Amino acid sequence: MSFNNNLDQLYRSVIMDHYKNPRNKGSLEDESVTIDMNNPTCGDRIHLTLKVEDGIVQDAKFDGEGCSISMSSASMMTQIVKGRKKEEALELAEIFSKMMLGEEFDVDKYDLGDVEALQGVAKFPARIKCATLAWKAMEKGVKSDNE
Amino acid sequence: MNQDIKRYFPILNQEVNGHPLVYLDSAATSQKPIQVIEAMRNYYELDNSNVHRGVHTLGNRATDLYEGAREKVRKFINANSTKEVIFTRGTTTSLNTVAGGYARQTLQEGDEIVISYMEHHSNIIPWQQVAKEKGAVLKYLDLEADGTISLDTVRKTITPKTKIVSVMMVSNVLGTINPVKEIAKIAHENGAIMVVDGAQAVPHMKVDVQDIDCDFLAFSGHKMCGPTGIGVLYGKQAILENMEPVEFGGEMIDFVGLHDSTWKELPWKFEGGTPIIASAIGLGAAIDFLNEIGLENIEAYEHKLAAYAMDQMETIDGLEIYGPRDPNKRCGLVTFNLADVHPHDVATVLDMNGIAVRAGHHCAQPLMKWLQVSATARASFYMYNDEADIDALVAGLQAAKEYFNDVF
């Protein structure tokens, strides 16, 4: 159908893969931070557990419910922050936010990998909040960790 | 009926994402006919002035138009007197006025407030707040499996301790038409007052406050072809007379001293500040428009559309419809989920096809919990929709299903 070209910018196959086969799904048992966040306008919900040690996000898992964009974004987020320094994780959250708002960011600083597939969301204003939920939860969690 | 009617709504004559707009979100807000837009433009171009204070001619004209709109509302809901018709910002403000005014001034510790599981947040949170403050108990009417309220449940839940019963006349999610007249009778037998949230009912069917015998009725202008920012609180005169205002300031006073003041008579004692004049006039024009078509015609037409929509939508494999299946028990909206596709994703695909539906929790989180879903999609109809719109919706849903089946 004629709308598929537009839709394909949003629903890239890598996004659908993360939605169907989420990475790091579940709850950590040795977490140091737990964050529950929801998107009050639509009911999307995330339960994020992080294990932060020696200034590094050693492990991350998420649980929750929501649309393909919110859940795939959560999956990608856990994938990219695992093993990162806290400052790097926070910087990635900032880069992601800029990407969603269509603002410029240093494209060479990090290899965004799968996350780049979410770039198309910026063209769907109503869906940006779906994509940013997990990143906001991570940002809050990393900032709140006072080890 | 709609081809004649559609032409009054300029907004519907446009393409969205390369497709003719199919607007199926009237339960969120309805579109506005040119008659309403023109009434407001005329007011601003010819008559704009503050009301109830100017000695000059424009002031008189503005006052006549504003009070004329009140009389139109009175007639529309069959209130006894314009003293019983208070202009507010919308249903939310109206319900907050009852909770923050009447309830706060009369409730005692241990008194009960009864609402239902299907209520909109605006008919839940004001009661939660006043219940916490006064030590009152907030009780919920349980729902039947088909998303209706049984009078047996009502009889069991309302007790002589119940002081306030507040129920929506039509559900914004299930589409259920609730037996508010019968519930009001049971409330009164127990000495409670009856509040009706009419936001989804007043635009679509004849609502007669004397027939229902409700003590308060709240509704919004923007869901009934009127502008945003205007709503109505109807209250029985005897109750309003004894109720203190909740907003204080200009326009609502009689005499102001240094340490004490007195209030204007009804309804103005509840309308502090410069009122929402242009929007009230717009609402008056919307009522004229609805009367011209006839609410009976609108109601019958929407029943037909809802029945057609449910029949067509049910042909889609994996599509689940919420609320009563019996078209006579529901109004013109259909809430649904499409197999494994999240409602946001459904709504985005439909939007790419020019079809506007709502997706989310519809400001009814307790009901979502009761339905055991986190979100749903909703298509809602008004007199300007037709079967072709529903055919477009069904085709869009088929396309959404295929699209997600392909990418999975």
TrEMBL record, chain A:
Residues 11-130 form the NIF system FeS cluster assembly NifU N-terminal domain. GO terms for molecular function: iron ion binding; iron-sulfur cluster binding. Signal peptide: none annotated. GO terms for biological process: iron-sulfur cluster assembly. Belongs to the NifU family. NCBIfam families: SUF_scaf_2 (TIGR01994). This is Nitrogen fixation protein NifU. It comes from Lysinibacillus odysseyi 34hs-1 = NBRC 100172. The lineage of its organism: Bacteria, Bacillati, Bacillota, Bacilli, Bacillales.
